[in-house]
Amino acid sequence: MTRDVTAELLVLRKRAATWILLGTWTFLGVFFAYVVPYALDPDDAAGGIGRFLPEQFTANLLTGFPFFGGVFALMLGVLALGSEYGWDTLKTLFTQRPGRLRILGAKLIALGVVLVPFVLALFAAGAVASVVIAQIEDAPVHWPSAWLIVRSAAGGWLILAAWAALGVLLGVLTRGTSLAIGIGILYALVIEGLLSAFADSVGALEPLTNVFLRANGYSIAAALGASADTIGSNGPGSFEGPLVGAGQAVAVIAALLAAFAGVTAVALRRRDVT
Amino acid sequence: MTTITTPIDAPVAAPFVIETRGLTKRYGDEVVAVSDLALGVRRGEVYGFLGPNGAGKTTTLRMLLGLVRPSSGRVSVLGEAPGTPDGLARVGAMVETPAFYPYLSGRDNLRVLARHADVGDSRAEAVLDEVGLTARAGHRVRTYSLGMVQRLGVAAALLKDPELLILDEPTNGLDPAGMAEMRAFIRAQGRAGRTVVLSSHLMGEVEQVCDRVGVIRGGRLMAEGTVDELRGRAGLRVRADPLEEAVRVVSGRPGVGAVTVVGGALDVTVEPARAAEINRVLVEAGIAVCELHPQTASLEDVFLELTGGAR
Description:
The structure holds two protein chains of two kinds. By secondary structure, chain A is mainly α.
């Protein structure tokens, strides 16, 4: 299995789209978490000036993961398997030694590995941005604890991993990339977005929204320090609540990840490669 | 049509490298791509799988490789059910136009496949050298010509040093020199004891390269045998005078089969090597022999007859 994973890492590492997504995600993540709100009016920004300082950098960045980061991870997931249909490379892969499920497993593990730099790059860039703002504001530089940074990175990774797994599933179900990305974004914006917005006023929707990636992703972010104000003013990805407990959120996201991977495995195993 | 309902994953116990029984693939209720196919490929032979476009060749090959699940029937490839890791470890395949990651170099593509196939990365260099692609191995596949992609496909098929090579239209996109080279390569594989299944719609290719041939049309196997067997019995065409006397003299001789008069000449079913003997007998009987030459049907004639003129 190790060699299968190294093969898939080679495929992802040498693909320009991986680096373009990583660069764009890192740039826009800092841009929307620091540059735009700080440039507009730092004192009136949700969470106040403290949100931009190093002590809050993990919490500030995590608010971008459940929606904005999710869409990037979804695209990465779609590209990882949907492109195989476009290039017709599945037949080449599936006539090598390992079975279909082992190849899928290798692809999912490789995707998980590639998501680590997505988290770390944004954290590093966000940390730098927070220090710059601290210098500008002449504020002291205090960092969150190492344990909080590690837990935040793990939480962020889990949120991205679930979205990436959804992308893989959509790529396999639609046997391509364009439709899969379209459906994925539609789901993130319209299904989860609108239903979450109505959940406040329509009580019947709450049980449904409680299993959404958005609700559970933001609940993880909130448990790791993100303020409800920031989460509620997060543009098209904003979430008014209700939030669920951290343990429940982690369990639901992990279960969704496993479900997406499981359905993908069934579809990939049963379908003909024509 | 008889449908064998034995589980399709159960391998056929076979003296053959590849054996199928009642192999059928349907798409929906209307389309039957392959119907009740019974193939047998023996170890060490180059087997030609001949049929017009759309005859079901590629679907059959995909079923042999586990890419497509049969609707019914049984398949054994090297004694294993198709698509199992143990079977695939001993099979090299190139199905239709080879497909690779366009942004990776030829070398990196082979490294990816080598790691999945659990063979060393160094094997990639060896097969690149074998197909003459070493000089371009570091370039991205998207810059390759179709012929180079075909060569890379062959290299990928050889990565596992397989017992069985399955090649689907391997000369597609190759120039005449490349086609000749590919045929020489396939013959060399056969001489080296490797079993090769070559799918093609090119009669000349199959005639030159293959030990045995299966002809498929409309998803059904129309004929299977050696090239000579498919061509039918050889014979002689004789123009002689008087013709009726010639018929009497030749008929009934030992080893002579049917003697028919066709357009003022005799078609004699007999080994062409006996042409001198037939000539001598006729002359000794006082019959003037104007013309005598061996006559065999070309594989193309047989193919066109079996497939109703389709290519």
